[in-house]
Design a protein that fits this description.
single chain
């Protein structure tokens, strides 16, 4: 697990980079249940750069709030690169933020399959002026550990996106 000091440094760097660029962030979260948004808004001054967060745990929420295509969900499933990308891009369109992160995964302890074991998480980062980036990770540990590692990975990706 990331130490509190390391998390604080990560959030400080993210805050500084976003403020320097005049950017705002939005989050589109499923398996993390709003944890990324919570970590962002724990930081004093985050109102300068945090726009809003979407917790779209159900497929219906993904479709209604983020305009994820029902066909994409049916073809690839909620835990997929395609859905993560549509979540991030939908959050950007809906919020008007400069940068978005989407997280969708299987935190467990149930729900895994041979193709998508527990701990599988897809991320996508969308930004106004460049192509959406996506990556899949497979985390180990219990439900809380998977969700924590996912939230930290989402924040690290946001920081990377500010320097790309």
């Amino acid at each position: 697990m990331m130490a509190n000091e390391d998390l604080s440094a990560l959030l400080e760097a993210l805050s500084a980079a976003l403020c320097e660029r005049g950017w705002t962030v939005t989050t589109a979260e499923s398996c993390t249940g709003g944890w990324v948004a919570k970590l962002c808004t724990d930081r004093a001054g985050s109102s300068n750069w945090f726009e809003r967060g979407y917790v779209t745990y159900s497929n219906a929420a993904k479709m209604e709030m983020l305009a994820v295509d029902p066909g994409t969900l049916q073809r690839w499933g909620a835990v997929s690169e395609a859905v993560a990308r549509e979540m991030a891009e939908g959050a950007m369109r809906s919020s008007g933020a400069s940068l978005a992160v989407a997280v969708t995964g299987i935190a467990g302890p149930e729900g895994g399959t041979p193709d998508k074991p527990v701990g599988t998480v897809w991320f996508a980062w969308a930004c106004d002026d460049r192509p959406t980036i996506s990556v899949s990770k497979c985390f180990s540990g219990d439900r809380e550990a998977v969700r924590w590692q996912s939230a930290v990975t989402a924040l690290e990706g946001l920081l990377q996106a500010t320097t790309a």
